[in-house]
Amino acid sequence: MRAPERKGVSAGMVGVLVVVAIALMTILVLFWMGSQPTTDQNANLAAQQAPPPPQTTIVQQPAAQPQQPIIIQQPAPVTQPAPIIVNPGSTATNPNDDSSIQAAIDKQLTDDTTLSTLGITATVMNGKVTLLGTVKTGGLKSQVEKVVRKVKGVKAVDNQISVIP
Q: Is the pTM of this model over 0.85?
């Protein structure tokens, strides 16, 4: 048996003919558009050129009068005086001397078994003693201050010991 022969144009051939027809029509339209005269031959150039910038008016102001510079002085930072280091074995002849007061305070604090373990720092400046450190109770803080006040030559005590329970 033989397959019947088809007569006519296949679907694939119809698709190819449609694509070719569309391509030809597109080419014809492009040629037709290119051959039409333009109303303004320099339309592209006119669109690309920017309009001239507007004229600006320059106003000259008078020169500013010279002003004196403003100087702002800030106060110097407050610092604590440097501690005076004295060898524990030395003694001074003048009891009002800061170094002799420092040595006496250091001796009192190290001789007391309770106070020697606290790590309190005492500095002396013109007879004024500054106490620094931390203790566990307010009683220990006041005990350190009392011991320092008893030292001969101490004029004032600034107790900056912190109580941290």
A: no
